[in-house]
Specification:
The complex is a heterotrimer of chains A (523), B (327) and C (370).
Chain A lengths: L16 E10 L2 E11 L4 E5 L6 H8 L7 E6 L2 E2 L5 H6 L2 E4 L11 H5 L12 H14 L15 H14 L4 E5 L7 H16 L3 E6 L2 H7 L2 E6 L2 E7 L5 H9 L20 E11 L5 E11 L3 E5 L6 H8 L7 E6 L2 E2 L5 H7 L1 E4 L3 H4 L7 H5 L18 H14 L16 H16 L3 E5 L7 H16 L3 E6 L2 H7 L2 E6 L2 E7 L5 H10 L8
Parallel strand pairs in A: 3-8, 3-9, 6-7, 7-8, 13-18, 13-19, 16-17, 17-18
Antiparallel strand pairs in A: 1-2, 1-4, 4-5, 9-10, 11-12, 11-14, 14-15, 19-20
Helix pairs in contact in A: 13-14, 14-15
Chain B lengths: L1 H33 L7 H19 L1 H25 L4 H20 L1 H11 L6 H4 L20 H6 L3 H19 L1 H11 L1 H6 L4 H27 L11 H11 L4 H19 L6 H4 L1 H5 L1 H17 L18
Helix pairs in contact in B: 1-8, 1-11, 1-12, 1-13, 2-3, 2-4, 2-5, 2-11, 2-12, 3-4, 3-11, 8-9, 8-13, 12-13, 12-16
Chain C lengths: L5 E4 L2 E7 L5 H25 L4 H13 L1 H26 L7 H20 L8 H28 L3 H21 L29 H22 L1 H11 L1 H6 L4 H28 L10 H11 L4 H25 L4 H22 E7 L6
Antiparallel strand pairs in C: 1-2, 2-3
Helix pairs in contact in C: 1-2, 1-13, 2-12, 3-7, 3-10, 3-11, 3-12, 4-5, 4-6, 4-10, 4-11, 5-6, 5-10, 7-8, 7-12, 8-10, 11-12, 11-13, 12-13
């Protein structure tokens, strides 16, 4: 799916932004290693790389969030010292981050014009709303400036973020992984908008780790790996393979690295979900009637843009959230509405998303976190309710060594661990202390570096080999395809379809994610 | 019928008079909380405002008293802001400490011997013994001529002293500022999402400092009004937890100054029933049980509000959380 | 945003950052320095208001060191110790229980009720009476604390306000009873109840009160220390206080953990009430507690919720209160003066926390070269 690209001719106008020799060091890592990066007028430039490649850091430097240790930045030919986002905005540079920086309870117009220099003491809100309407209609959008941001969809929220930049005269727009929260239809709409903006003479930098996107929307593409620029080319003059090699540094095949599922194996029905309806946080129904089965020795992947009820579904299955109606059976036992404690006792364990926030208590030590879920059971405590710290520490040592958690000692606080190590700790703890039959994992590799991501993926596969059932929620289509035996696609609180490995392809899944009709000619 | 109307008039009038205490404190606190800071110290600041207004009225008159009470409140607010915004200490603990300090200081200075010496040092021309009488002249009522003749409402709303008018006016003005102006938008954003406000170029620390200082100044005025406008007799524990009741009023009114007017009137009415309006029968026999009413009702209303919103209270999202600029 | 928290002057700047670990000696040193600062600041206030700080503090020291006063110090500290240790259960859970005073009053009311019933012949006397007073005061305090706990767990009602409101309700209730139905007919018209018979008091006649109190206080502190460190409840309550979501995920029923902890707080506060009504005063009367419950709050926070240090902090309060009485008698200093000192200690201690955990560093500003 390509959108026709106009793009500038390579040797046309002088570059609008030039970054030369940028070096940025953080305590443990060299994030940018003598990076050169150029942006031309009227182009869409994809900045491609894996998590941790340094692309976001580079753009953060351009936006004034960080200061480079070495290097020059020229904007429209003039060397600049961008000390803060305010400087950047004044230069016409704007950034849209992955996490939306909006105030949910305020309206669109209030968010867009927050602390805008033009805003008088008693602003004429109606005039401002009118102004926004003009821009909105110009791009073919449909948001109402008076509506509360909290009521908008992720795609619409992104439009509000763009409005914020446009209204401050941004000519250079930096977008950080913008499609990570969008459905395919919304992504297409975004690309149309970006193309129009480029045609108007604006410059767009698209930070992404998705090859397909980079190929389809950009005029030029730069690949970064481990802090260095590996490649900068006109998109028309390169290919997916070349980009992929540049990103990974080896001739690796991205999709389908898993050995095919073995033939008939004694399969036990572990989890059976029927007609499940679950309420979300905002008083809206998040899960609208889901049927699902998970067998032992398989990985069932749930694909879908985050925010379509996956987390609520998984929380209902693991007892954190009470379902409104429906049934959940584990090994034949009715566990609808059962507590996390009970489910854990029965053999269901949960790896929550953002493990750092929800799965551990960072202020506590490693061994205390290992005991987190099981402190009240033998052998970790006696019948009288006394904790056996010695047993806990032994188990902690075992988890740390077997799962390669890099830490000073088991007495270190978990707050000192990196994201990957926290995730390893959580996985290790769950597998060792609760010995589950069914593992439910939500976005387990999100935000992790490549090494940790690989390790966790391999771990999940090995669990499956060992006969454990895995319910995996992921927003990365490639990851879902790589790991799952079957793929269930969720959209708007419903399972739109369940595909086996052979039927599943990115296009197929993408189509299902967008409007729920299974076989749909890809556009 | 005549009697009922007279009773209603008296009740409403007393409710407005008493309610202004809560109104001033709560409006100030709503500003502070909208910026994300909870100031549990307003009880202590009210006490300080009361003792200040007592001694300063004797020394220099009402205007000086009000100005000093506000200034003192602002100064204490500055300390609170420093501890909670700059040093990022726990807001609950700091607020309680400030309240203790305020209550202790006002109790200390209110003791006859101390009051006397303070008064003498404030204004040697005034005889120190006046302080020992524990009284001060009241704020005069100022009627607003045409409106005072409205039935029932006339006497209630337009025959009060200037602080009452100030309280009502400030509630409206604060509402306008919060919801219609650029400053108010910035302030509310600081309370909802300080990181966003910061990256939008708003000085989060300055806003929170200002909001805390202004809110505390209001609390000081509330204490001053409590004494010279409402009950100009110095007793131990003059404030009687009204500051804390004001805190719950802010929650009840969903942080909106206009709704605070209504809530303050309600609680003013409760107070009036205790003291200003003669009760008959059961009430007279057991005054303590009637005095319990405001506290019990606060608990009940808080429970009702929490039940109604199911924990999804429309509080400013960042309320109570210190802000650190992340690298 | 390279504008870090701190000041930048030219190329150098002062930066505030967290200390990586806390050394014992530094911690203790800072605490002591700030404690001294508290006394200094209060002294300055007293000087300003016309009192000699020197006289006040020397009187304080004399009180603390005098043999006769030691007993009084223990007696006054006892209710604070109990209530403060109880509060550490609440605060550990991040449950801001301001209601110790009310729970203490309910303890007083309940135990007085037992005494009244005994006087009226409804309840038997003898050794059983002590059992009833203990049980009644403990239960009354516990139940009174359950109300805000339940409201918070079920409905999410802010516990600071509910506990505070219930304080006033309890105090007024006591007031009403003392002026009304429980007024001692032979009391010369004073608003007070009949006396507590000796067998209803915690320290039986013949034993030195201070020893009994010390024993009870140490037992409570020791038991609580053990619970916090070595029991499942202690661990789970720590988790609930630190991260409520993680505790839900961990399978901990945070609602029941909170209710249990707050109940214990109430029970201990109620028992403190028994000590006040039974031993310290000997009867119930208006203003029986000069704010023991509130002193307990500060003592608990001062002691960092750690039972042994909470005990020490409570003793400090006992010393301050005792000398406050002495100072009022000898120097005519209002008792509120002690409140000022206490508030100052409070403020400086929390500031000390900050100083302990952070340090100042001078940094060279790193700029982007042009």
């Amino acid at each position: 799916m390509t959108i026709s690209s106009g793009g500038p001719s390579a040797n046309s106008a002088s570059p609008v932004v030039e970054m030369r020799g940028i070096v940025k060091r953080f305590p443990l890592v060299l994030a940018n290693d003598h990076v050169d990066f150029t942006i031309y007028r009227g182009e869409v430039h994809a900045l491609l790389g894996e998590n941790g490649a340094g692309k976001t850091t580079l753009m953060n430097i351009l936006y004034g969030i960080y200061q480079p240790d070495e290097g020059v930045i020229r904007v429209r030919g003039v060397p600049q010292h961008i000390r803060s986002p305010r400087d950047a905005i004044r230069l016409g540079i704007g950034m849209v981050h992955q996490d939306f920086r909006l105030i949910e309870s305020h309206t669109v117009v209030e968010n867009v014009f927050l602390n805008h220099p033009r805003l008088g003491l008693l602003p004429d809100w109606r005039a401002l709303e009118e102004e926004l309407r003009v821009i909105i209609e110009g791009y073919g959008w449909s948001i109402d400036p008076k509506s509360r941001v909290g009521a908008l969809s992720p795609g619409e929220k992104q439009q509000v973020e763009l409005l914020k930049l446009l209204v401050r005269g941004a000519e250079i727009l930096l977008l950080d992984e913008p499609t990570s929260v969008l459905t395919p239809i919304e992504s297409r709409m975004l690309f149309r908008t970006l193309r129009r903006m480029a045609d108007e003479g604006k410059s767009i930098v698209l930070i992404t780790h998705k090859l397909n996107e980079a190929m389809s929307i950009s005029d030029r593409v730069t690949v970064m790996r481990r802090g260095r620029v590996v490649l900068t080319k006109l998109t028309g003059e390169t290919s997916i393979e070349e980009l992929s090699n540049a990103m990974i540094g080896a001739n690796a095949n991205m999709a389908g690295a898993q050995p095919p599922l073995e033939g008939a194996r004694a399969r036990e029905l572990l989890l059976s979900v029927k007609g499940l309806r679950v309420m979300g946080d905002k008083g809206v129904l998040a899960v609208k009637g889901v049927d699902l089965d998970v067998y032992s020795g398989e990985i069932l992947g749930i694909a879908g843009v985050s925010g379509n009820g996956q987390v609520e579904l998984v929380e209902a299955i693991t007892g954190i959230r009470k379902p409104l109606s429906g049934k959940i059976l584990f090994r034949g036992v009715d566990v609808t509405g059962a507590s996390p404690r009970r489910l854990m006792e029965l053999g269901v364990t949960y790896i929550p998303p953002e493990g750092r926030k929800w799965g551990v208590v960072p202020e506590l030590t490693i061994y205390e976190n290992v005991a987190l879920r099981v402190a009240r059971y033998p052998p970790y405590s006696s019948r009288l309710g006394l904790i056996r710290w010695r047993n806990i520490m032994e188990m902690a040592r075992r988890v740390v060594s077997e799962f390669k958690v890099e830490a000073g000692s088991i007495h270190s606080r978990v707050s000192t661990l990196s994201g990957g190590n926290v995730q390893r700790l959580i996985l290790g703890r769950e597998l060792e202390t609760t010995k589950p039959a069914l593992l439910v994992a939500a976005y387990p590799t999100k935000g992790l570096d490549i090494a940790a991501t690989e390790q966790i993926r391999r771990l999940l596969i090995s669990l499956r080999e060992g006969g454990i059932g895995v319910l995996l929620v992921s927003e990365d289509i490639d990851e879902v395809l790589e790991l799952s035996d079957r793929v269930a696609v969720m959209f708007d609180g419903r399972v739109v379809g369940i595909l086996g490995r052979d039927e599943a392809s990115p296009e197929h899944i993408g189509a299902m994610m967008s409007r729920g009709a299974p076989l749909h000619a890809a556009t | 019928m005549q009697e009922a109307v007279a009773f209603a008039e008296t009740l409403l009038s007393s409710a407005v008079a008493a309610g202004t205490i809560y109104l001033l404190a709560a409006v100030g606190e709503s500003i502070t909380e909208r910026s994300g800071v909870i100031n549990l110290g307003i009880e202590g600041i009210m006490a300080l405002g009361a003792i200040t207004s007592f001694l300063l009225t004797l020394a220099y008159g009402h205007v000086a008293a009000l100005l000093c009470a506000a200034a003192l409140g602002a100064a204490v607010g500055l300390v609170h802001a420093f501890l909670t915004v700059s040093l990022r200490l726990n807001q609950v603990v700091v607020g309680l400490a400030v309240t203790w300090l305020g209550l202790g200081l006002s109790g200390f200075v209110g003791a006859p011997e101390v009051a006397r010496s303070v008064l003498e040092s404030l204004n040697p021309a005034v005889p120190g013994q006046l302080a020992e009488l524990k009284q001060a002249p009241r704020l005069q009522e100022v009627g607003i001529a045409p409106l005072i003749h409205l039935p029932i409402l006339g006497r209630a709303f337009f025959a009060q002293n200037t602080m009452v008018y100030f309280g009502l006016a400030s509630a409206v003005v604060v509402w306008v500022i919060l919801f219609k102006t650029r400053w108010g938008l910035s302030l509310r954003s600081v309370g909802e999402n300080p990181a966003l406000a910061d990256s939008s170029g708003i000085n989060v620390f300055l806003v929170r400092y200002a909001a805390t200082i202004v809110g505390s100044a209001f609390a000081g005025l509330a204490g001053a009004y409590l004494f010279i406008g409402y009950q100009p007799f110095w007793v131990e524990n003059l404030t009687r937890s009204r500051g804390f009741i004001a805190l719950s009023l802010v929650i009840l009114a969903s942080w909106s100054p206009l709704r605070i007017i209504g809530a303050a009137l309600l609680f003013g009415a409760l107070e009036a029933l205790q003291f200003r309006v003669p009760l008959r029968g059961l009430g007279a026999e057991t005054p303590q049980l009637v005095m319990m009413l405001p506290y019990v009702i606060t608990v009940l209303t808080l429970m009702a509000v929490s039940l109604a919103t199911r924990g999804r209270i429309p509080a400013p999202a960042a309320l109570g959380k210190p802000y650190t600029r992340e690298e | 945003m390279q504008r870090r928290s701190g000041l930048m002057v030219g190329a150098l700047g002062i930066k505030l950052e967290r200390r990586p670990e806390l050394s014992r000696t530094w911690s203790v040193l800072v605490t002591l320095v700030f404690l001294g600062l508290a006394f200094l600041l209060s002294g300055a206030i007293f000087q300003l208001l016309g009192y000699s700080a020197l006289e006040i503090y020397s009187a304080f020291v004399r009180t603390v060191l005098s043999q006769a006063m030691v007993e009084e110090i223990f007696r006054k500290s006892a209710p604070i110790i109990l209530a403060a240790i109880g509060l550490s259960y609440s605060y550990r859970l991040n449950f801001w229980n301001i209601g110790a005073e009310g729970q203490l009053y309910m303890g007083m009311i309940a135990s007085t009720g037992v005494v009244v019933l005994n006087y009226a012949g409804v309840l038997p006397g003898g050794p059983l009476l002590l059992f009833f007073t203990v049980a009644a005061s403990a239960l009354a305090g516990g139940v009174w604390s359950l109300i805000p706990a339940a409201l918070r767990v079920r409905v999410g009602a802010n516990e600071i306000i509910t506990t505070l409101m219930l304080n006033y309700t309890a105090i007024l209730l006591a007031d009403y009873l003392v002026h009304g139905p429980w007024k001692d007919p032979a009391g010369y018209g004073f608003a007070q109840t009949i006396q507590f018979p000796p067998e209803a008091r915690l320290a039986p006649p013949g034993t030195p009160e201070w020893a009994v109190f010390l024993a009870i206080a140490s037992a409570c502190a020791g038991a609580t220390f053990f619970v916090f460190k070595y029991t499942v409840y202690g661990f789970e309550s720590k988790v609930v206080g630190l991260n409520p979501y993680a505790s839900r995920y961990a399978g901990i029923r945070s609602g029941s953990v909170i209710i249990k902890g707050v109940f214990v707080s109430g029970v201990l506060a109620g028992l403190a009430g028994l000590i006040v009504a039974g031993n310290l005063i000997g009867r119930l009367r208006p203003g029986a507690s000069p704010g023991y419950g509130y002193h307990a709050i500060i003592a608990a926070l001062l002691g960092g919720l750690n039972p042994p240090t909470v005990l020490l902090a409570s003793l400090l309060f006992g010393m301050l209160l005792t000398s406050g009485d002495v100072l009022q008698a000898s120097l005519q200093m209002p008792k509120a003066g002690v409140q000022i000192i206490i508030a100052m200690i409070f403020i400086t201690t929390i500031t000390a926390e900050f100083v302990k955990r952070n340090r100042i560093r001078v940094v060279r500003r790193r700029g982007g070269a042009v």
